[in-house]
Design a protein that fits this description.
Elements: E1 2-6, H1 11-22, E2 26-31, H2 38-46, E3 56-60, H3 66-72, E4 78-81, H4 88-93, H5 95-115, E5 121-127, E6 139-141, E7 146-148, H6 165-185, E8 189-194, E9 196-198, H7 210-220, E10 225-227, E11 233-238, H8 239-251, H9 253-256, E12 259-263, E13 270-272, H10 277-285, E14 293-295, E15 304-305, H11 310-316, H12 324-337
Parallel strand pairs: 1-2, 1-4, 2-3, 4-5, 5-8, 8-12, 9-11, 10-14, 11-15
Antiparallel strand pairs: 6-7, 11-13
Helix pairs in contact: 1-2, 3-5, 5-6, 7-12
Length: 343
C-alpha cells in the first residue's frame, strides 16, 4: 500500500514507519521537524535496512498548510494522522498555535482525503484527554496510587466527553471531526483514544512523554520535578503494541471504519507516576533515583486514567503483549545505548 504518516518523524511515527517499510509498504512521511531531535528519528529511519527505490519518501511540510497536505496525500491509500501539538502546558501558554495544529491541521488532512479519488482510510491518534478530569467518577486513594472505585477495568469509550484544557479541546475537535467524516462523507476513518505510550525513540520532556523523560533524567543526572502527589495512575502501553493495533485496524477497515477505540495498557499495565515508578527507576539504575522538586497539580491532570480496552479485543482480537517492566527495561536500554543524544 501507499501510506502517508503525518508526524512520521516523531516517536510513534518513526516506529510505525519502520514497521510498515519492513512489511513492504511505500511510506511517505510528512513532518515539519519542529520538535527537537525529530531529525535524529528521520536519519535513523532512512538508515534502516535497504528499501526499494522510492519506498520511503520525506516531505518537510506542516499540516497547517492545506496545499502541502493535499499534495502529500494525493496517491495515498491510507493516512495515519499523528502530527500534533502534544503538551497540555504548551496549549495553555499558546492556545492559538495548539488549535491551528491539532484542530485545523486535522481538518486539512480530512479535506485532503475527502478530495482524493483514492478515498484513503484516515486513522487518527486522539488522546485520553478528551474525557477530561472525569470528575463524575468515584476515586479511591491508596498508599501509592489512586484508583477508580467502580471501574476495575477502566473507562470505556462510552464515557462522556469533557474537553479540559486547550489541548483537550483541540484534540477533541479533531476526534469528533474524524468520526463525523465517516458518518457524513463515508470516508473510512478510525479514532484511537490513546493513553500513555512509551518506548524506544521517545525523546520525552517534562510536559510530554513523562516516562521517557524520567528515564532520561535518571541516566543523565538531570533533576526530576513531580507535580501533584505522585500517586496519579496511568495505564502504560509499549509502542509496538500500539502499532499492532494500528495495523489490525487498517487491515480490517471494513470493520473498523467509523469506530473509536480506547488504546492503553489496560488494568494489567498500570503505574503511579512517581510513588510506584520511582522504585522501578531505582532498580533499573542500580542506585536511588530521587525527585529534586515537588510542585502543584497542573491543569487537566487526571488523578487516574485507565482505559477499558475490551472493545479492541472483542472486535480485533488485540491486547497488549509487552509487560510493563519488560517494556520499561527496553526503554531504559535504548536510552543507555544512545546516551550521546541526550548529553
Amino acid at each position: 500500500m501507499r501510506i502517508v504518516i503525518t508526524g512520521g518523524a516523531g516517536f510513534i511515527g518513526c516506529n510505525l514507519a519502520a514497521r510498515l517499510l519492513a512489511r513492504g509498504h511505500h511510506v511517505t512521511i510528512l513532518d515539519n521537524l519542529s520538535r527537537p531531535r525529530t531529525p535524529h528519528n528521520l536519519s535513523w529511519l532512512q538508515a534502516q535496512a535497504p528499501t526499494a527505490p522510492g519506498q520511503l519518501q520525506f516531505v518537510q511540510a506542516d499540516v497547517r498548510d492545506p496545499a502541502a497536505v493535499t499534495a502529500a496525500v494525493a496517491a495515498a491509500e491510507a493516512i495515519y494522522h499523528l502530527a500534533s501539538q502534544v503538551a497540555v502546558t504548551t496549549s495553555v501558554q499558546d492556545p492559538r498555535t495548539d488549535f491551528e495544529i491539532n484542530a485545523l491541521g486535522t481538518f486539512n488532512v480530512l479535506e485532503a482525503a475527502r478530495s482524493s479519488p483514492q478515498r484513503p482510510a484516515v486513522l487518527y491518534a486522539s488522546t485520553n484527554k478528551v474525557y477530561g478530569g472525569m470528575d463524575d467518577l468515584a476515586i479511591s486513594e491508596g498508599e501509592t496510587r489512586y484508583s477508580y472505585s467502580d471501574l476495575p477495568l477502566g473507562v470505556p469509550e462510552t464515557q462522556p466527553l469533557d474537553f479540559h484544557s486547550p489541548y483537550g479541546c483541540s484534540k477533541g475537535a479533531g476526534d469528533q471531526y474524524v468520526r463525523d467524516y465517516y458518518r457524513i462523507y463515508g470516508l473510512p476513518t478510525v479514532v484511537f483514544r490513546q493513553s500513555a505510550i512509551y518506548g524506544p525513540r521517545q525523546f520525552g520532556v517534562e510536559d510530554q512523554g513523562w516516562a521517557a523523560h524520567f528515564v532520561i533524567a535518571a541516566q543523565t543526572g538531570r533533576p526530576i520535578s513531580i507535580f501533584g502527589d505522585g500517586k496519579q495512575v496511568r495505564d502504560m502501553l509499549f509502542v509496538d503494541d500500539l502499532i499492532d493495533l494500528y495495523e489490525l485496524a487498517l487491515a480490517r477497515i471494513d470493520r473498523t471504519a467509523g469506530q473509536i477505540y480506547n488504546v492503553g495498557g489496560g488494568a494489567a499495565n498500570t503505574l503511579s507516576i512517581w510513588r510506584e515508578f520511582q522504585p522501578l527507576l531505582t532498580r533499573l539504575a542500580g542506585h536511588p533515583v530521587e525527585a529534586a522538586h515537588h510542585g502543584d497539580w497542573r491543569p487537566g491532570d487526571q488523578p487516574v486514567c485507565i482505559l477499558d480496552i475490551r472493545k479492541a479485543h472483542a472486535e480485533l482480537g488485540w491486547r497488549p503483549q509487552v509487560r510493563l517492566e519488560d517494556g520499561m527495561g527496553r526503554l531504559w536500554n535504548w536510552v543507555s545505548e544512545n546516551i550521546g543524544l541526550f548529553q
